[in-house]
Task: inverse folding
């Protein structure tokens, strides 16, 4: 089943299972890059850190990502991650 999600500069992963996260993030970040977003916020929650570890592991190896860091206090603190996307090179 295909689920359509509106592409905004943030995504909340609370509704997704850990095994769905890598493919979801790949699709989401690809679409964000196409829309010209340079920075997005991924809300993974605080909890035990399972979702955060999955997110950070994916981001570390993604060719779409320039850098990432914990969100500031007003944007979710350690329950969210800010991602700087690489600029799309014109073909």
Result:
């Amino acid at each position: 089943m295909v689920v359509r999600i509106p592409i905004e500069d943030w995504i909340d992963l609370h509704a997704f299972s850990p095994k769905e996260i890598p493919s979801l993030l790949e699709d989401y970040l690809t679409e964000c890059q196409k829309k010209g977003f340079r920075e997005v916020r991924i809300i993974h929650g605080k909890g035990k850190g399972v979702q955060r570890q999955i997110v950070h592991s994916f981001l570390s190896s993604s060719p779409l990502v320039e850098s990432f860091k914990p969100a500031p206090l007003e944007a979710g603190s350690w329950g969210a991650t800010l991602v700087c996307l690489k600029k799309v090179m014109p073909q």
Notes: The two ends are 32 Å apart (CA to CA). The mean pLDDT is 91.
